[in-house]
Design goal:
This protein has 13 helices and 14 strands. The chain is an alpha/beta fold and 380 residues long. The chain has one domain: 4-Layer Sandwich (Metallo-beta-lactamase, Chain A), CATH 3.60.15. β8 and β9 form a beta hairpin. α7 packs antiparallel against α8. The longest helix has 22 residues. It starts with 6 loop residues before the first helix and ends with a strand.
């Protein structure tokens, strides 16, 4: 059973990673764009290549590299799918991410794992579409979960609704940034939606570290931690195969959600994201990127450039819009070309608006004004 941690290679790999400054960061979630912006993104994606045009049907797999299979599972959101990965691990298998906690996803796993021995799941981060069925896979198939400590901890805090990770703290935070009572009420009614997607979290786990080498069958995968989308997002890079399992950090057609959290209200996660994605340039440009959403692609440098340009353009919009003081909620249409009512998308949208505003404040392009308990931002 190939469950070797490769401790003998850990120190060397960590030193090499430090020299390369390959600190990959978090990317993040589900921006929907107007037709004009979508057309622009489609044009930009002409710089990328997509070697696997056909999508695997639910309950089936598609081989994308030696010992690496692509699975596509359904999601109950506007972003309607997640990609998972199944790695040949000697005579066994390792899963990378587990899918949303639903009976449909369970049934798909049962079909795929028929006659197979799943020995572990490596979870890139704590969001429900990634962590959702880790507990079920452990209980039914004996798959031990591997995960970063940051995301393991956050998952438990959200599931248990503790302190600043609870819905009331989120509502108070968004209210300070101007979100109206109707959308606050919709978020309140939604409740702890996280627990619906993550019905069970394993009681123990193997901790992932930045630079750690994980042996899966004959291949070595280097953990690349990132920040900005989740607490400690773990991507996996295999130099031998020329493959990066990027998770949510590098997506081909949508930009990752980067949001400020109530527990760290003054953070600058956008800067963490920009710094981290720049480090992807250290990888060969012909690396096959396996994203959590969208199709596998090649063209890391082009995609990093596109994402950086995208966020620079969004920041320029905000600077112009904040010639007179504005709060984050009234700037959602500026960032997304439309207002947003769906509670699930509102949560992402206002979190991302605050992230851009905080970034502009940290880089001395906006000032923050507090009046009547509402935070507003004004161009300097």
């Amino acid at each position: 059973m190939a469950l070797v941690h490769c401790n003998q290679n850990y120190a060397l790999a960590a030193r090499m990673l430090h020299r390369l400054s390959a600190v990959i960061v978090m990317l993040p979630l589900r921006r929907r764009q107007s037709s004009g912006a979508t057309d622009k993104m489609e044009f930009m994606n002409s710089a990328l290549s997509f070697p696997f045009p056909d999508l695997p049907a639910t309950g089936t797999t598609t081989a994308v590299a030696q010992g690496v299979a692509w699975l596509r599972m359904p999601l109950p959101f506007a972003l309607d799918h997640i990609n998972l990965w199944l790695l040949k691990d000697g005579e066994n298998f390792t899963a990378v991410d587990t899918g949303f906690g639903s009976s449909e996803t369970m049934a798909a796993w049962d079909t795929i794992l028929s006659g197979k021995n799943l020995v572990r799941s490596i979870v890139t981060h704590s969001h429900p579409d990634h962590l959702g069925l880790a507990g079920w896979l452990e209980e039914k198939y004996g798959a031990q979960m591997w995960m970063s400590q940051g995301d393991y901890t956050v998952a438990h805090l959200i599931n248990a609704q503790i302190g600043g990770y609870a819905v009331p703290a989120m509502l108070e935070f968004f209210a300070r940034h101007g979100l109206d009572s109707a959308r606050l009420a919709a978020l309140d009614k939604r409740g702890n939606a996280y627990k619906k997607g993550v019905p069970e979290i394993p009681g123990s786990y193997r901790r992932l570290f930045d630079g750690q080498i994980i042996c899966v069958g004959e291949n070595e995968w280097r953990v690349m931690m990132g920040y900005g989308h989740a607490a400690e997002h773990a991507s996996l890079y295999c130099e031998k195969l020329g493959v990066l399992i990027a998770g949510d950090m590098l997506l081909p057609r949508i930009s990752t959600n980067v949001a400020v959290q109530p527990t760290n209200p003054d953070d600058d996660p956008l800067q963490w994201f920009l710094d981290a994605t720049a480090a992807y340039r250290a990888l060969p440009d012909d690396t096959l990127v396996l994203p959590s959403h969208g199709k596998p692609f090649r063209g890391i440098n082009a995609r990093v450039t596109q994402l950086h340009d995208h966020h620079a353009e969004r920041c320029a919009r905000l600077i112009e819009a904040c010639a007179t003081p504005k709060h984050a909620a009234e700037l959602i249409p500026v960032l997304f070309d439309r207002d947003i009512a769906d509670a699930h998308q509102v949560m992402f949208a206002i979190g991302e608006a605050i992230a851009h505003l905080n970034h502009l404040m940290h880089t001395n392009r906006l000032r923050r004004i507090i009046a009547d308990g509402i935070l507003r931002f004004e161009t300097i």
